[in-house]
């Protein structure tokens, strides 16, 4: 999600900043980030192990590619 605010004719920098912060508050972006920061669930043991296995396969394939000339 992106928030773009363009400066209007004759608008001061302070007013632009206030309008931008209003847009941020309106989208509740800060609350979402805070919620993700403290209440993010960790992956289950099975998912963590599966990702580790796939990561090792990927690394082994790349290591093999390095020495093929």
Keywords:
69 residues; elongated; mainly alpha
What does this structure look like?
- Helices cover 70% and strands 0% of the residues.
- By secondary structure, the chain is mostly helical.
- The two termini are 44 Å apart.
Residue stretches low in confidence (pLDDT < 50, at least 5 long) are none
How many separate helices?
Answer: 3
Percentage of residues in strands: under 5%
Structural class: mainly alpha
Gap from first CA to last CA: 44 Å
SSE string: HHH
Number of domains: 1
User: How many strand units?
Assistant: 0
What composes the largest sheet? Answer: none
Question: What gross morphology would you assign?
Answer: elongated
- The whole-angstrom Rg is 23 Å
Helix content: 55-70%
Indicate the mean pLDDT: 87
